[in-house]
Amino acid sequence: MILNIFTDIHELLLGLMPENIVHITELVLIAVAYLGIFAILGLFLVWLERRIAAFFQFRLGPNRVGPMGLFQTVADALKLVSKELTGTEKADKFLYKIAPYFVITTALMSLSLIPFSYEIHAFDINIGLFFLTSVSSVGVLGIFLAGWASNNKYSLIGGMRTGIQMISYELSVGMAIVTMVVLAGTLQISEIVEIQKDGWLIYQGHIPAIIAFMIFMIAGTAESNRTPFDLVEAESELGAGFHTEYSGMNFAYYFLAEFVNLFLISSVAVILFFGGWLSPFGITDTIPFAGLFWFVIKVLGVIFIFMWFRWTFPRFRIDQLLTLEWKFLLPINMVNIVLMALMVWLGLTL
Amino acid sequence: MKEFLTDQLKTQEYFLNMGPQHPATHGVLRLLLKLDGEIVRNVDMDLGYIHRSIEKMCERASYKQIIHLTDRLDYLSAHMNNEAVCLLAEKALNIEVNDRIKIVRTIMDELTRISSHVLWWGVTGMDIGAITTFMYGFRERELINDIFEETCGTRLTMNYNVIGGLRYDIHENFVKRTKDVLKHLKKKLPEYDKLLTNNIIFQKRLMNVGVISGEDAIAYGLNGPTARGSGVSCDIRKTHPYSAYDMVDFEEAIFTEGDSFARYKVRIKEMWESISIIEQLIDKIPNDEYKVKTKAVIKLPVGDYLQRVEASRGDFGVYVKSNGQKFPERLKFRSPGFANLTALNKMAYGLKIADLVAILSTIDVVVPDIDR
């Protein structure tokens, strides 16, 4: 049966080669699979964004290449791959070239932690959420380096803004996660999901959990550099911001990573608040791989909210962005953690 | 530690070349910014990237030809610009036009104003970061442009006015379509408020940004909605009524705050006023000739002539010095955008780059109008 597919592959490989080589082969296979997921996710989300944007703006969006224009982004990616990689003469060549890989590697590393279902979960460690937040904060370096190394003032301003924005909002994301960890009592992602069999954490933690969810959504938007926090690449101010000087595939890396990061943020929201791969009321929990369906549905729901934000709100100014974080979100967050701790201590959770 | 920081880490002001190719400069305006981090210390405006010497060309063009050149100034208020030249020639030659011409001209003026303002609304939203507004603005603009297309065959550079009247009579659908568009606009303008005006982020981005007092506005020669945002009453439609503006009852949109949000509100209110003006006139179009007979070659009598109209961006003036020939001896356009742009440095000093974009957007520059 389908449940045994992984053991089948494992045994097939064991018949072909010695055990330690099988382990390495399997690692490579999983890595390739995740690269595939990465590319498909990125391309699909770009398509989704364009379609949703179009519907918000009473346009049609891409609808010619493939069914419902699904292959439009594939065609775009092919175009980007075939383009020449240009760069500025006075750029810091080494940093300029290495910067996109920071973004893409960290996105890929974070992706490996995401449980698509009970069965499909590549990397489940006991400090899962901690690892996730620390790895994703390294991704900022990629944007910051791109802004610095391009030797372009617009890129530099974009890079400066990234530094300010990411450092600020990382705190809010982290503290919203901590609030939920207080409730869940573990950092391991699979355990956090399992705890929610009795009820999703947003239900278990009610008031502080809802506050944490709202903060997480706001800070998550900022973390993924989307409107109303897209100051980093503020089109009307900075042209293209930090990736002004990037072309071809280097640009595509940033573009794809941005959308994979969107998926990551939404996934974390789903894991922390909406029960991960669990179905509502456990209706399909016994069916293998059904979790994949529920997980994707929930994540798409959260992604839709992010896209809704993007096509509705205007952009903040840099000082307003900082005021919002340091004067509002952070104090609320701190009080919220204490509130959550008290609730857990007094046993007021549902 | 502090000494180390001041010794090792120096800060310096730097220059940023914004434009001529830049999404926020609405064409080919070049701004040379002196920045301290993100704070604007000085704005130098470098013009001339789309200079076509239209004023000089006008000295070698007959008065009928000049009308066509005025389209290319502020292309979003093409009809008003055309009208200024026509009114000037009619005044000089003592041509009396009938009420039908006056009323149709006024309706077209106001339709142009609405179409220009909805486009401005969309672009302002986009400059502030809300991209969807751009499409919304264009949706309404398309409907108005369709009316223009049906009336005179063109959508942007209309050339509908000729000296002594209109080029063609209005289309039989004109009245019905205009009413339909007004109905549509009345439904959509509150939607604009919901989407953008009442958005807290948008308000925070515009309020107290680019403040200019009424005295400064007069000193800089600001005009149009930009000056009316500072409480300066300067509507040519009120002060020097032309065409059918003395037949209608409308309110001059004035707000006194002087910031970008006041300028924004002025334009939103102007759209409502334009709708009311058209509604007052649309059923009153009398049956009459659409054109008064004029000579084939128009020669203005010797003398100086000035005609001002209220274009979408403000006071558009045409000054002609005639020596009795078929070409003007000297012609000068007074464009609203040029005067408005001069106050940019005053408004943007000490603010952020993002504010500069917002200010540029709310004074609504159209660069071909500034570089003539």
Overview of this protein structure:
The complex is a heterodimer of chains A (350) and B (372). Chain A is 69% helix and 0% strand. Chain A is globular. Chain A is mainly α and 350 residues long. With 372 residues, chain B is of the alpha+beta class. Chain B contains 16 helices and eight strands. Chain B has helices at 2-8, 54-58, 63-70, 78-93, 99-128, 132-152, 174-197, 200-206, 214-219, 225-228, 236-239, 260-282, 336-342, 344-348, 353-362, 367-370, and strands at 14-18, 30-36, 39-46, 161-162, 165-166, 303-311, 314-322, 330-334. In chain B, the strands form three sheets. Chain B has a three-stranded antiparallel β-sheet. In chain B, strands 6-7-8 form a three-stranded antiparallel β-sheet. Chain B has a two-stranded antiparallel ribbon with strand order 4-5. In chain B, helix 3 (63-70) packs antiparallel against helix 4 (78-93) and helix 5 packs antiparallel against helix 6. Chain B is globular, with a radius of gyration of 22 Å. The A-B interface holds A 53, 56-59, 153-154, 157, 160, 227-228, 230-231, 234-239, 311-320 and B 14, 16, 22-24, 37-38, 125-132, 135-136, 139, 195-196, 199, 201-202, 204-205, 352-355, 357.
Number of strands of chain B: 8
**Tally of separate helices of chain B:** 16
- Tell me the name of the CATH homologous superfamily of chain B: Cytochrome-c3 Hydrogenase, chain B
Total number of β-strand segments of chain A? 0
- The topology string of helices and strands of chain A comes to HHHHHHHHHHHHH
Low-confidence stretches of chain B: none
Overall pLDDT of chain B: 87
Residue stretches of chain A low in confidence (pLDDT < 50, at least 5 long) are: none
Through-space gap between termini of chain A: 38 Å
Give a short synopsis of this structure.
The complex is a heterodimer of chains A (350) and B (372). With 350 residues, chain A is mainly alpha-helical.
